[in-house]
Amino acid sequence: MVFLNKAVLMEYPYSMSLLTLQQVATVLLLHLGGSFGISQSPQFSLKIARKLLPLSFFYNANVAFALASLQGVNIPMYIALKRLTPLAVLVTDIFTGKGKPATQVALSVMTTGFGVLIAALGDFSFDLVGYALALTSVSFQTAYLVLVERSGGEDGMSSTELMYYNALLSLPFLAVLIIFTGEAGTAPTLLFYKIQSIYFFVIVALSLIMGIVLNYTMFLCTIVNSALTTTIVGVLKGVGSTLLGFIVLGGVEVHALNVAGLVINTAGGVWYSVAKFKRRKSKSSKSMEEKPLIQIGSTK
């Protein structure tokens, strides 16, 4: 997804307009799916919309700053900076009363963060503005994921419903941003001109489709698991993207610190997965032991 967005922005440098296209496509696709009986037809509720307004705000702020940072930061370092999200989620969980995590979980998350710092030390194309934008995106993504977990887990909303409301509520925010950034004057004209190119049409179409798929799987993962698990899965996914960024894009100088940081970061992600699996298995075994035996019958 990062590669597709980067490819589109290289041809069409209007990040807010691109995000708007993704949200409009999401709303239309969900309504289309409901009409054909493929998915549940979304029903708008003003009460739910008001409740999910903060979620939509944080989502758009996260994506807006992330797309903006891509214009100044290379993909490997962008992914590395975004990997600080698990650490931010962990700290947020503690301060919001979710309780302290298990020692193994906490240490594994801190390991992923330490790996990011090591990798950043080997970045010779340091861009202060790009780094600041990416880190700001991390803070918004943290708030966004915590709200998704709360809305889905506690309020019982499905991933499809969250997607629908998030996309619909995003449009007013994006309209303001498009006007504020000056995209409204030139973005539509350039889009009409560029879309005549088959290459541009294909990468935009893929960007829209993958954006919808990514949001759905992220919502689903966060609801079923947790915000922290979602970010760790993202960390492991980012390893492949980082390696691909070094090989495919070119122009990125490979440094020993980058490689060392990547290895440490990956080790932290694997450690977290193992720790969570063992903890869940232990809870399951304990639950089975404490479950009272059911009496089949009795003789008198």
From TrEMBL:
Record membrane topology: Multi-pass membrane protein
GO terms (BP aspect): transmembrane transport
Main location: membrane
Keyword entries, A-Z: Membrane, Transmembrane, Transmembrane helix
Protein name, as recorded: Sugar phosphate transporter domain-containing protein
MF terms in GO: antiporter activity; UDP-galactose transmembrane transporter activity; UDP-glucose transmembrane transporter activity
Subcellular location, record wording: Membrane
InterPro entries, per database record: Sugar_P_trans_dom, TPT_transporter
Keyword Transmembrane found: yes
A GO-annotated cellular component: membrane
All residue ranges annotated as the Sugar phosphate transporter domain in the record: 3-273
Record-annotated membrane-spanning stretches: 61-81, 102-122, 128-147, 168-192, 198-220, 227-249, 255-274
